[in-house]
Design brief:
Layout (H helix, E strand, L loop, with lengths): L2 E7 L7 H9 L3 E4 L4 E3 L5 H8 L6 E4 L2 H10 L8 E3 L3 H9 L9 E2 L8 H7 L2 H4 L3 E7 L5 H8 L3 E11 L5 H10 L3 E5 L3 H14 L8 H6 L2 E4 L2 H9 L4 E4 L4 H10 L2
Parallel strand pairs: 1-2, 1-9, 4-5, 4-7, 5-6, 7-8, 9-10, 10-11
Antiparallel strand pairs: 3-8
Helix pairs in contact: 3-4
Length: about 260
């Protein structure tokens, strides 16, 4: 069975619009099937309190565009003199939407095609941060590697939650959509390990419906396009058979789609 022209985008809608348009522009059929939902915190007071003291920090690291949007909604004017660290091009675009760029702020970001905590650490001036404070703005949960490595270097780290991530409700409409998508082979853009797990859980839940006992195997035959080796490893461990690894950012994802048969 050949792969179809369908490309399934699994990001939340707010992060997918430009990518969906780019896919359609190349003549592919784009379908949105979010595997993560981004929600505001029920209580913004801790975030607002942390941001009110932001001038006490030598560096603020944002782990995602969601972290940027949530924080800058609570503090729309970025103070001069506070450096910023980001992971990838999506975060750079998010900063630009809020009027922040290299022309008016110091921004550290990985120079490698791989964008994660490890490559961000490689470009930070660790010596200048020792004995000072760094804020990490993230979701309610996430990797601890960046915070742990900075603390090992004698840097005080404060992690601040700015949003929450949950798996979307897998109701009957989404079950039917997933069953329809699995009737053929498609390209699936999956941009986090958490999304991989949510996709697997949704497929297993679908397999419990009458006549759906073969959907797990069908899902494992889909082609996944992922922007990080860690996501590829998660997908491989879940039994996916065709995984295409690319660089981060919409442009790299679109280029990968164009190169695939």
């Amino acid at each position: 069975m050949n792969y179809s022209a369908t490309v399934v985008v699994t990001r939340p809608l707010v992060q997918s619009e430009e990518l969906l348009q780019g896919i359609e522009a190349m003549g592919r059929h784009a379908v949105l099937f979010p595997l993560l939902e981004i929600l505001p915190l029920p209580d913004l007071a801790p975030l607002q309190a942390a941001l009110s003291a932001i001038r006490d920090y030598a560096l603020v690291a944002f782990v995602s565009p969601n972290a940027i949007d949530a924080a800058l909604a609570a503090m729309p004017i970025w103070p001069s003199g506070v450096a910023i660290a980001i992971m990838g091009e999506g975060s750079r675009r998010a900063l630009a939407r809020h009027g922040i760029n290299e022309g008016n702020s110091v921004i550290f970001s990985p120079q490698d095609v791989r964008t994660d905590s490890e490559t961000l650490l490689a470009v930070l001036d660790i010596a200048s941060l020792r004995g000072r404070k760094v804020m990490i703005v993230r979701g309610e949960t996430g990797r601890e590697l960046l915070a742990d490595r900075l603390r090992e270097q004698g840097i005080e780290v404060v992690q601040v939650a700015a949003y929450r991530r949950i798996a979307p409700l897998f109701d009957s409409a989404r079950q039917s959509q997933l069953a329809s998508l699995l009737e053929g082979k498609s390209d699936w853009i999956v941009t986090s390990s958490e999304a991989v797990r949510n996709l697997v859980n949704a497929t297993r839940e679908l397999s419990q419906r009458p006549g759906m006992d073969g959907v797990v195997a069908k899902m494992q035959q889909q082609r996944l396009i992922v922007p990080h080796a860690r996501i590829a490893e998660s997908a491989h461990s879940e039994g996916f058979l065709n995984i295409s690894l690319t660089a981060s950012g919409d442009a790299a994802l679109l280029a990968a789609l164009q190169s695939l048969p």
